[in-house]
Amino acid sequence: MKPEDVKVCVIRIEGTNCEDEMAGAFEMVGAKAEKVHLKQLLGQAPADMRRSLEDYDILAFPGGFSAGDYVRAGAIFAARIKAGIGSDLKRFIEEGKPVLGVCNGFQILVELGLLPAMEGTMSEVPTAALYNNDSGRFECRPTVLRNDNRGKCIFTSGIKSKQMLSIPSAHAEGKLMSMDPDFVQKLEDNDQIVFRYVCPDGSDAVYPWNPNGSPSDIAGICNPAGNVLGMMPHPERVMTRYTHADWTRNPGPAEGDGYRIFSSVIESLTRN
Amino acid sequence: MAGLMVKRDVPFELYDVDILSADDEQLKGISSDMSLSLSLEEMRNIQEYFRKEGRNPTDVELQSLGQAWSEHCCYKSSKPILKEFVFGIDREDVLSKGDAGVMLFDDDYGYALRIESHNHPSAIEPYGGAATGIGGILRDVVCMGAQPIGLADPLCFGPIDKEVDLPQGIKSPRYLVNGVVSGIRDYGNRVGIPTITGGFFFDEKYTGNCLVNVACLGIVKRKDLANNFAGGPGEVMILIGGRTGRDGIHGVNFASTDLTSTSDEDSRGAVQLGDPITKEPVMHACFEVNAKHLITGMKDLGGGGLSCVVGEMALDAGCGADVDLEKVPLKEPGLAPWEIWVSESQERMMCTCKPENVEKVLEIFEMWDVLATPIARTTDLKRTRLFWNGEPIFDMDLEFLTGGPVYERPYILPETSSRSKEEFPELPGDKEVILSLLSDLNVASKEWAIRQYDHEVRAGTVVHPLVGEMNMAGPGDASVLMPVPGRFKGLAAAIGCNPWFTEADPYKGGKACIDETCRNLVAVGAKPNAFTDCLNFGNPEKPERLGEFREAVRGLGEIARELGIPIPSGNVSLYNEAPGGHHILPTPMILGCGLIDDVRKAVTADFKKAGSCVFLFGFTKDEMGGSLLFRKYGGKEGAVPDVDIPVLKRLMDELLQAMDEGIVLSCHDCSDGGLAVAIAEMCISGRVGAEIDLSGILMEDYRKKLYSESNSRWIVEVDGMNVTRFTEILGNDATLLGITKGDELRIKDVGISVPVLEMIEAWNSPMWKIMGGGAQ
Predict the structure, then answer these.
(1) Three-class secondary structure of residue B760 per DSSP
(2) How far is B657 from chain A, CA to nearest CA, in Å?
């Protein structure tokens, strides 16, 4: 498979609003990305616009405020998907195809039970949730992430262990919580922790470097199989260095810190 | 006036109004009872028109005239002045002057810009008022066929750092700040358009009447640039988006009168309700029908609702329109025809298309789950006619309806602040002065608001509103976007406004607003390309207020014309007065756009390192009038900073040349607080000190060197190895002040030193302390 043969479905409903840059990010690493409305997958569209999930190689859930997030972030979108294409989606993941959720997309994956999904591909009910930030406010600010994955996650396969990436956050609900007291330890044991917030010098994050108060500074997790990644920060916003908040202060390569996340997954798919 | 209103014998609510037999008192009574806000003279004109028509008007017709002839819709007081001074600055790269202005961006794209006010609704209901302000300005850009790419929100409030006397019925500034910022945040973030710049202006004169100005930028392929009118007769008008309800009735009339102590109760219904999650698919669907060239025109429903949009879309195409009003989808049953006709319910657009394309258009809206309903047809008769299930309820000549009155109202030229009467205030020690200016809310960090706005969504923000070290950043001058993915051509946006200069000398103030806008744009390396202006002033029926308006407009028109920079869109907001006749500061809010060929050459305001040279670029004069120093310490009068336009032009060219050659490390304009605050801010964002000497500035009083707010000045940081080339380009226009060094701002010749950490604290904390929370 060549990069241009990789077909990416960037799924959206009303209120999804980061689909352009999400599709753009996959295009920048050579893949073919298509923005697809959920209705097109549900058969609720004119014949020439209907799409089938199985025709794609990657599924991406962009950020935004799907359906306004007036219930709980991501809950409405997740409910519509589960009712309509739940089994297609499960099959997609069980075939090992990569799924990425960023920000609201991460919230949707959690609501769908696709993350953390410690038992099985898709839990019946959500086993975690993304709570309101400790500050009680929407926080749009630079954050620094450390790749803490030990090799399972397909999206960090091209990124060195413990490498730090500057990837911005913009959300009001990003604190990953679970009822399970051993939640973090289990994620750690399963190698499901992908990104942690850190301070720019690499030390443990304190606010605002951990912008939401997430326990153990968790910014992104994957499923036990490593092909589903959810993260609060926005890698698609830093595909070039010129959109980093402080680029005029630092010399650096033209590539932005988000680039490797997208190129990693394309490289994995095209290597096989 | 009950006797003059005759209910027609139809199964819905319709009144014929007996205007033909009414005397002057009764005409006034009709205007006030129906909340038309029309003067006696205007009512007499209307009487005369219907006398010629040989019949009495319906309530729908009178309501429609009340909308169309409001100050908000027809600019009846401001138009002659705008015509004299600002209209007609044309350039061949102006692509459209529609609902938003559109300028050439590159060979393939144009960019759209527009600013407008949402002052009165926000004073009553800050959250909803600000949110719907964003909604409205987005629609203005969308109906050009342009994808919105950036929002800007300059805001003016009463002081939030001290107790103020609130006129009856007026809400506290802190409550308003919180509500307005939340409204902008929730609407802007949800709809996914970054809020990239703005401003906060605090002054007691805004206590009774806050200002909420909202601006939007967009990008459009030149081949998709849309018209805001029909293609000709025989087309179908399709109403898109939200349903119509009783929210937002008489919004334009409310905007065209002073606020009163009972505005809250009387006019709550004039504030619309916003819904960003309806807006978002409306935008997608509109772009799709436009890009497929299935429609001939589109226009947003703003002030006046259907009553304005139908007539304007038809008349601008030389047509008329027949409307089946009963087809308009409603939020609730039982609205009277006149309410449907003038409602300003949000999230609605109108498009026109050829009859053969109606089905295809409707199919696309259906796909996006957006309501779309054909409600009217264009005709070759220049009249608007309304029907309710076939019953004619409205039939008016469009030129009369949209013509509206124009007034040459009397004005008095204001007395201006002068140097001869200047009283220089007593000052504490300079360190205290500098820290106190930095912590003045008109200077201090606005991070509390900025970080609540998503300023990076769409992934095109190159220069952010806060610049410097991550999460410890200082103030920027302009934000820069990369509007077209994959291209490095940049669009910069900056706000410029100095209401204190404008109050002290409206003519010079008008010029200064444009100068500041240009300074901000040039500071990031962008060449100023176009302006959009929101002119917020008081009651034009008061000659003093109109005199301020006239002089300010004269100033900004003069400088824009001499610079050759067009103003392809704008907005006028008059009647900004609180109960008791308290008027606002005259506030000409400018949003400027600049172009930068390669964003990789953009410059930010943070000092980059220790050991580089610091220059003052431009000329410092004895111009203390309206300055922050005088306001803070009780100075009086003084000359208001003027602009030497040819010098401004030369300085901009030189600085842009140096930036293009890549030899400017950082650059920041001198504005509030003068040179002292500008350098301090660069130390704050760069986390490095500076050691400077003022003796190169030729003036007696060092305090004037530090705090005068003369226009057309920048502070520039240059690496030592590039100084020779830099001074070749800038010649005698640049004065070497010193170097970046250490962890203090030291002004050697006058023995001032202020630690950077103290400046950071002074600048950073005030708004957090007042509004709650904390970050750094």
Answers:
(1) helix
(2) 18
Joined tokens for residue B427: 């000052």
CA distance B85 to B554: 5
CB pair distance less than 8 Å for A207 and B185: no
Residue type at B508? Answer: K
Domain range holding A231? 3-271
Angle of helix B645-660 relative to helix B723-730, nearest 10 degrees, comes to 150
All residues of chain A having their beta carbon less than 8 Å from the beta carbon of residue B281 are 14
C-alpha neighbours within 13 Å on the C-beta side of residue B387 = 10
- Which amino acid, residue B745? L
- Structure confidence at residue B392 as a pLDDT band (50, 70, 90): very high
> What DSSP character marks residue B222?
G
Structural domains in chain B, sorted by start:
2-72 (1.10.8.750), 226-250+276-389 (3.90.650.10)
> Nearest CA to B647 among B710, B722, B568?
B710
CA B366 to chain centre: 34
Contacts of B189 in chain A (CB under 8 A): 65, 138, 170
Rounded to 5°, angle at Cα B776 from A208 and B672: 130
Total domain count for chain A?
1
Query: For B670-746, where are the alpha helices, taking DSSP H only?
Result: 674-686, 702-707, 723-730
- Return the number of other C-beta atoms located less than 10 Å from residue B2's C-beta: 6
Token pair, residue A213, equals 């108060």
Give per-residue pLDDT as tens, A149-186: 999 999 999 999 999 999 999 999 999 999 999 999 99
* Whether A68 and B277 lie within 8 Å, measured CB to CB: yes
CATH code of A147's domain: 3.40.50.880
pTM: predicted TM-score of the whole model, two decimal places? 0.96
What are the tokens at B300? 């947003």
For the segment B299-305, the average pLDDT, to the nearest whole number, is 91
Cα dist from B312 to B80, B82, B173, B287, whole Å: 21, 21, 38, 21
pLDDT, tens only, B48-69:
999 999 999 999 999 999 999 9
Partners of A99 in the β-ladder: A59, A228
Instruction: Reply yes or no on whether the pLDDT at B776 is more than 50.
Output: no
Helix B756-771 × helix B674-686 angle, to 10°: 90
ipTM above threshold 0.90: yes
User: Strand, coil or helix: what is B333?
Assistant: coil
Let me know the angle formed at the C-alpha of B536 by B569 and B457, rounded to the nearest 5 degrees: 60
B769 inside 8 A of chain A by CB: no
CA distance A54 to A92: 7
pLDDT tens per residue, range B246-262: 887 877 777 777 777 77
Q: Is B324 helix (H, G, I), strand (E, B) or coil?
A: strand
| Beta bridge partner(s), residue B385 | B322, B395
Residue tagged 């001290």 (tokens)? B162
Give mean pLDDT, residues B713-726: 97
In sequence order, the 6+-apart residues with CB closer than 8 A to the CB of A251 are none
The total number of residues shown for chain B amounts to 776
Q: Record the tokens describing residue B722, joined without a space.
A: 């590039």
With a cut of 70, say whether residue B268 has pLDDT above it: no
Q: Which listed residue (A103, A111, A171, A173) is catalytic?
A: A103
